[in-house]
Amino acid sequence: MANFTASSSPDRSRRILVVDDERIVWEVIRAALEGPHVFLDYATDGEKAISMIISEKYDLVITDKNLPGITGLDVVRQLKRRDPSVSALMITAYASRESAEEAMAIGCDDYLVKPFDVDTLRQKVADLLERRDRRLEMAGKPSTVGANRRIMVAEKDDATWRVIADALAGMGHQVRRAKSTTDVLEAVRNGQADGLVCSLEMLDSDSASSCFLRSALVVHPEVILVAIAEMQDLKNAVDAASYGCRKIMYRNLMKDAKTVAEQLAGVFG
Prior knowledge:
It is built from eleven helices and ten strands. The protein is of the alpha/beta class. It has two domains: 14-138, 3-Layer(aba) Sandwich (Rossmann fold); 150-268, Rossmann fold, CATH 3.40.50. The strands form two sheets. The protein has a five-stranded parallel β-sheet, with helices on both faces. Strands 7-6-8-9-10 form a five-stranded parallel β-sheet, with helices on both faces. Helix 6 (158-170) links the parallel strand 6 and strand 7. 39% of the residues are buried.
């Protein structure tokens, strides 16, 4: 197997922490990611992982969700409290809609279900290291935390668009309606969007513009992403989590303006 090389800044040293109570998983990940300038540490439980996060500086933490004692979700919470710029990849053999939604809510950058393909793991890790680089580049630059974010909404249904736009405007944000995936892509690439609300289908499509959009979102992790799915199920939640969404909303549960506003407030409020 060829050595792993990060796609951005290949000569820069990378430090990755892997947390899993199954040693075979560690061996697979180590074999997939070992290479020049890549340093891998291993913890078998959440308590040890948190201790290592406190004492060492990491670019990426890959953690199993179901650890003995302190869970992988707790590890990510502690990680993001200490340094939100560090990327986090949640892995699990017991995927559920609820765990994928919780992973999004606490700031996980990606979500991977076991057993996984090694090439998929490598691509995700390369993307997450690129996100980490981008966050470090942005450190110290003006932030749009709080009100007055520029949020694009890609929604075809006029009534749903109006409800979302009114909710976001009521929080003090600038809201713009996207006409197409290309419209969204240009805004993300040009730094004209701080947040994006769009259908999961837009992110999941095999079209060229959607592929370019996914790539653009990797290098623009500052864009807060919310996906809208047709229905509440495991696949939709896992897909949204794997794209780095902060939240997924389901059309069948978007019953009224109050419900929509409450869901968006948890992300953009």
